[in-house]
Write the structure tokens for this entry.
Amino acid sequence: MKFVERKIIFHGSHFTDFYLEQITKMKKEAIKNAKSFDELLDIKYGKLGSSVRDEYETKANYFVISEMLKEARMDAHLTQEQLADKIGTKKSYISRLENGKVDIQLSTLFKIFETGLGRKIQLTIL
């Protein structure tokens, strides 16, 4: 199901609000009838490959990495400051990583997990 916003001008008045309201109702109904999580994502963010969906997928991946980092740090019984000291960075950087506020370089990711947390990283390219 594709949703399109239209702006109609009638004697100088915009009816955008009406159509946005209708689109919102249609989306809510489509969400209610969705049969899978992928279908929900398609409704909310568009199909894979669309710019909105790609942005969502990127943010979702950052979130997963940040949660994995936080969980691994806690499993190692380290504070953010202790982890930062082990890898030669600042606590604020670890905090920003764990909160998804900064992009992480692959070399930094390996350094954090392997040097700081004694874990191994295995990447899968799809």
User: Anything to note?
Assistant: Residues 45 and 53 are 5 Å apart (CA to CA). The beta strands are 9-10, 13-14. Residues 51-75 form the longest helix (25 residues).
